[in-house]
Amino acid sequence: MFQKTDDIRFLVIGAILVMLLLFISFLISFLISQKKKLKYHKELQALHDEQKNILTQQNALLEKKVEERTTQLREQKEALQRSLFELKLAQAQLIQREKMASLGELTAGIAHEIQNPLNFVNNFSEINAELFSEMKDHLAKEKLSESGQLHIDNLARDVTQNLEKIVHHGKRADAIVKGMLQHSRNSTGMKELTDINTLCAEYLKLSYQGIRARDKSFNATVETHFDDSLEKININPQDMSRVLLNIFNNAFYAVGDKKRKAGANFEPTVWVSTIKQNGKLVIAIRDNGNGIPEKILDKILHPFFTTKPAGEGSGLGLSISYDLIKMADGELKVESREGEFAEFRILLPYS
After folding, report:
1. Own/partner pairs for 164-173, CB < 8 Å, 24+ apart?
2. Rg (CA), the chain
3. C-beta of residue 258 within 8 angstroms of C-beta of residue 342
4. How far is the CA of 139 from the CAs of 3, 101, 142, 154, 157, in angstroms?
5. Which of 5, 31, 108, 336 has the CB geometry, 3.0–4.6 Å to 342, for a possible disulfide?
6. Helix 237-262 and helix 317-327, axial crossing angle in degrees, nearest 10
């Protein structure tokens, strides 16, 4: 009986050992399998990371190429836009020059045709005035009745006054014709690097001396503020000198006219300045004259429009100036307050 019990015990222990061995074998197999799976997952993750890095590099390279191509296209677009702008500008300037040339030829033809009969009117009006003066002096020596002498004197006075009006308006017409001829004068179109400060100073002095030569009593304060750092600008100096002279003359006329009306308490002053703003040269000419009424401010650049009394202006100075500035691809801006000031600003591009 004890022998059977021992046998059974050995069998149980053997079975347990077998089961333990089987479990250990299964556990070892499971661990080996898990290790293989872990290694596989690591290799798979490494492959995925590598592919991701390659894809990231390819995306970065592609984005760089797209950005470079976009930059090239943008530069090409900007170059084409600049070319188109320059082409339109050149076309506009060419059209403006052709218009000016055609208008100039027409104006010159009309002016020359008017000039001859106008010369006759002016010359013979002056001669007749002299003849009437001589006739009046001669009749004064003759013995005439008092009523007859009075009648002749009245007639002579009336005729003389009429002739003076003819002479006055003849000279006015003569000034208009000269203005038309000046308007029709063809520009050489030759540009050169010009020191705008020197040009302004030269023609400001010339304008002031010209006014003084016609009116010895004229005096005005002139203040200049020239930017010494300005580089030379490529312009037609002949055209720009005509522009400056016209505007300077108008400024001095405005302050002189106000001085005659306001009296000793008024100090005529003209300011001229140059400066570079936003890539453009700005010439500002300001006076403290009577200014320009707002209702006619938009008309002052029209040909033959003038605010001066009859006989004192042709109405072509500002019109000529506006056309010349436009041909230089510039702008002419006007600001004024009636009774206080007028300011003309010339804006020229650096090119």
Report:
1. 164/129, 166/121, 166/125, 167/122, 167/125, 167/126, 167/129, 168/310, 168/311, 169/310, 169/311, 170/118, 170/121, 170/122, 170/125, 171/122, 171/311, 172/310, 172/311, 173/114, 173/118
2. 48
3. no
4. 192, 55, 5, 13, 13
5. 336
6. 150
Taking domain 188-349, whether its CATH number is 3.40.50.2300 is answered by: no
Question: In which residue ranges of the chain is CATH 3.30.565.10 found?
Answer: 188-349
- Using the structure block, give the residue that is written with the tokens 């006989």: 311
- The torsion region of residue 339 among left (phi > 0), alpha (psi -120 to 50) and beta comes to left
Do residues 239 and 324 lie in contact, with contact meaning Cβ atoms separated by under 8 Å? yes
Q: Tell me, what amino acid is at 49? A: D
Q: Is 196 helix (H, G, I), strand (E, B) or coil?
A: helix
One digit per residue, the tens of pLDDT, for the chain of length 351 reads: 555 676 777 777 877 887 888 888 888 888 888 888 888 888 888 888 888 888 888 888 888 888 888 888 888 888 888 888 777 766 666 666 666 555 556 666 666 666 666 676 767 777 777 777 777 776 666 666 777 667 777 777 777 777 777 777 666 666 666 655 555 555 555 788 999 999 999 889 888 888 887 888 889 999 999 999 999 998 888 888 888 988 998 899 989 989 888 878 889 999 999 999 888 999 999 999 888 877 776 766 665 545 555 445 445 667 778 888 888 888 889 898 888 899 999 999 886
| Overall size of the chain counted in residues | 351
Q: How far apart, in whole angstroms, are the C-alpha atoms of residue 194 and residue 58?
A: 56
